[in-house]
Amino acid sequence: MTLSSTLLHLTDFRNPFLKTLVPSVGAAFAIQAAFAIPSILAQSERFYDVSGSLTYLSVTALSLYLPAIRARAAATAVGSLKPAWPSLLDAFTGKGGANGLNWRQVVLSTAVTIWATRLGSYLFQRVLKDGHDSRFDEIKKSPPRFFAAWMAQATWVTLCMMPVLALNSIPRTTLAALPILGLTDIIGITIYVGGLGFEIAADRQKSAWVEAKKNKEHDEDFLTHGLWSKSRHPNYFGESTLWTGIATTAAGVLLTTTGQRGMGLSTTWYGRVLGLGMCAVSPAFVTFLLFKVSGIPLSEKKYDKKYGDHKDYQEWKKNTPVFIPKF
Fold first, then answer.
1. Are the beta carbons of 167 and 253 closer than 8 angstroms?
2. Gene Ontology cellular component (predicted)?
């Protein structure tokens, strides 16, 4: 028996949600550990952010195709013809068979893929230009603390992905019982698109401002125009918003009786509370990190130290909301 077959067997739970959750979480921590070991030895944080994005992409793909992987492995074990991989296009036509996909699974998985690819490439290019990430100047000197940072990233991926993992655990045949399009689908996707657009615009404005400063086109100490005049951290607001959109669309499924049964949960209030928690934990954890851990606190501390005694900085900070934009 191969390693992959063994892992599939060990995670072949009766509960559909656990059958997807356990291997997906295991993959997240395994990938982060694989990047952590050489990075700790080299005391380098260069691949930290890009490894996070690769973990998102890997876990998303695994959760989406896991039923097909299991079906193909089972066919191989008995020497029968392996079923074809499910088509992404068939997800929008209702075809695909027992191991096929539902359009909501494809759309939310694609949403995560777009965000992770865009942000990962942006952060990787930034660290290559800067040569380092100041967040890790002290942490990388301590192997235990540095390893903990990689494991924290695996936890971040797991909790943010929870609504998508839960949705992807439901068989397509079960999801077929839902209406083709619901209000939460429209609201959630709209929120996601708005949040992603906000984050991209904020990052591009910041990059353009930094590049212009390097070219001596201005001598501003900090960015105060564009979206940065509406919020002190518009990129973080966009990130929190897009995960709220993903959670909203997922909640429209996970809180229904169909969704509850598809995950193997009780259809009582307990099951609905659990389903709601799976959705809420994603944007809640992202926002917590941004407000209390690595986002806003580090940025505010850095700029307060540099420009805290500047009147224009004090004025901008006084009149500009820290998070939710004011138009």
1. yes
2. membrane
In b/e form, how buried is each residue of 282-310, taking b as 16+ CB within 10 angstroms? bbbbbbebbeeeebbeebeeebeeebeee
- Token readout for 89 is 């296009």
Asked if pLDDT for residue 96 goes beyond 70, the answer is no
C-alpha to C-alpha distances, 186 to 23, 248, 280, 320, nearest whole angstrom: 30, 9, 18, 31
Q: How confident is the model at residue 263 (pLDDT cuts 50, 70, 90)?
A: very high
Q: How confident is the model at residue 303 (pLDDT cuts 50, 70, 90)?
A: confident
Buried/exposed code over 56-93 (b: 16+ C-beta within 10 A; e: otherwise)? bbbbbebbbbbbbbbbbbeeeeeeeeebeebebebbee
Q: Where are the domains of the chain?
A: 1-173, 177-327
**Pairwise CA distance, residues 159 & 51, whole Å:** 16
Backbone torsion region of residue 18, taken as left when φ is above 0, otherwise alpha when ψ lies between -120 and 50, otherwise beta: alpha
Task: Give the number of residues written for the chain.
Answer: 327
Q: Give ∠ CA 150-288-27 in degrees, rounded to 5.
A: 35
The per-residue pLDDT for 268 is: 81
Are 176 and 94 within 8 A, CB to CB?
A: yes
Provide the CB-side half-sphere exposure for 175 (13 A, CA).
31
Q: Which tokens go with 277?
A: 């928690």
Residue 324's SS3 state is coil
Which one-letter amino acid corresponds to residue 32?
A: Q
**pLDDT score, position 302:** 86
SS (H, E, C) 258-293: HHHHHHCCCCCHHHHHHHHHHHHHHHHHHHHHHHHC
Q: What is the pLDDT of residue 98?
A: 67
83: left (phi over 0), alpha (psi -120 to 50) or beta: beta
